[in-house]
Amino acid sequence: MVQDFQQNFVHNFGWRGFLLLFLFALLILKSISAQQPALNLLPIPANIQPGAGSLRIDSSFSAALTGYTEPRLERAAERFLQQLARQTALPIGRKAARLAQATLVIHTDHPSKEIQEVGEDESYVLEITGGGAKLAAPNPLGILHGLQTFLQLVDVSSDGLAAPAVMIQDKPRFPWRGLMIDSARHFIPLEVIRRNLDAMEAVKMNVFHWHLSDNQGFRIESKRLPKLHEMGSDGLFYTQEEIRDVIAYARDRGIRMVPEFDVPGHSTAWFVAHPELASGPGPYEIERRWGVFDPAMDPTKETTYKFLDEFIGEMAKLFPDEFFHVGGDEVNGKQWNANNQIQEFMRAHGLKNNQALQAYFNKRLQAIVGKHSKSMIGWDEIFDPSLPKDITIHSWRGQASLATAAKQGYRGLLSNGYYLDLGWPAARHYAVDPVSGDAANLSPEEKQRILGGESCMWAEYVNAENIDSRIWPRNAAIAERLWSPAEVRDPASMYARLDFISTRLELLGLTHRTHHGRMLHRIAGATATTEEFAALQTLTDQLEPVKDYTREQTAPAEPTSLTPMNRVVDAIPLESDAARRFSELVNRFIATSCLDGDAAELLRAQFTTWRDNDAKLQPLAQRSFLVREVAARSQDLSTLATIGLAALDAIAKHQPAPDSWKTRQLSALDKLKTQKAQLLLMPVPAVQKLVEAAAGGACFGAKP
Ligand code: ACM
User: Whole-prediction pTM value?
Assistant: First the structure.
């Protein structure tokens, strides 16, 4: 057939014509494969080969383990079946499937390390055909990842639930793919921690870094030094038994747990019980405010190191991981400068400045951490070439410090660019690569020292209720950056799959989507009508909290750990999907020189809804002080819509709008860009593009 076609075609159009057609077909195929990954997988595996057909998934589904096995694998298979049942609503029970009959055969070669290590083999091979599926891995870590891949592949199809036939060979790009949660600034209950570990497993993250002490709280039980948690936590701390449970829970999911005890700064909560550790006189109270504070440990007293030895010795036994995070960030040095005895010590030891004093402290600390068989990791500030090479630099300040450390033989990981609390869109985190910028020019050997990265969830403005929504789904984009090949970087594809994974995470028990409705109902109050509540949703869908570190500067009163988190700014997601989609629609419309009639209609309908929304919401603003706070933003959305409609009217006339009109509109839009109630009106830049396009811009042939 193909040969016939070729011969006829060559006969009629010549070889050159055939070659052209062939190239054209290749081009189409290539553009299809580049545009849309056919599979809803996040992170995208290292190697995917699509097969023909699909594996039907029904209630007879079963799984069997072969090769090496252990209780962790049995529990993993059980959880897998439970999750498959939840996600498909099929009554899939735990059946003791015999190998020959199992739908999914899971083969493991050998055990992984008893205490999970950095750089262990996490690879797996998953083959799905119409007749069954095989998952194979050298050790249980790969199996855990492969089971998640399988779960992501199962979806509805035209004739039932199915997983597509496929051959996947997968392994991570980086060995360290972490999420840090700060339980010090706001205490995060254990069930929240556990469900975030479930979500980490779903996107193949493998390190949970737990920030357990800071100025605002000391969150772990110490049996040797119990006043630490008794006086430093307001009663909100994790017992050692609870910690052991969470460590086991994480290990079951292929996740290492690295504790952080931040010293010598960020340590006020220690001093409430032990003021003798501090460099200033005290007394100390648990800090309620946010920011960088003066209290710091006294690095010149032997008693400080004796205390740290006692404490670290206890914690080193509790936390099995090789790594022990000592913080080390943001010591402002004021207490050191003000303490004569410390100044005298510095002179006597030839320590020229506070950085040298901190390096002295870190050398002593490293010896203690090493004595308890741990490897020390800390934020950028611990980097000093006089420290031994076995410390690891955790960069919150950028690739430059990471590159400098790697060049000098230190291992490192990146968190700059992965701070979830800054409220960046997923695409911005996604574009950050640990081995880019200053790290791009490292030698292969130096690059090996960059272990990966960690997203950070600092907890000034999160609590048990909204933390899931501050982490997810954006964190999944970071998980993909750290797992998938570097070439996987198309934001459109990422967003499409993020949407999918986001709904799957809700099925795992995460609350990042559902919390929002609950919080908005509280804000609206019992008297809100259905129409008023819908108006509140229409408005808040287009808002995002202020970005970066502006939340504190724009607050109506100084925020503290006791400030209620009940406002719209606390409830809405940090990235608005609705606003992103609106902006994509405007871009699409402009790309057609504003000729796409369907897009114009959609825009007009959207603007009309927004224009009329304010009148529906204002009565509720009279009855709820939490809605009243956003009343001005509601008027702004209406104003924005009026400008958008005027732009569409101008475009419909097929005549560029006059410059004077454009100037007036742009100046009105500028006023809408500033924050109000700590909220940004997200569609403003898209409407600005539309105004520019209408006034002789992209609608009239100019390049957008
Ligand atoms: C940090 O953000 N101070 C580590």
Answer: 0.94
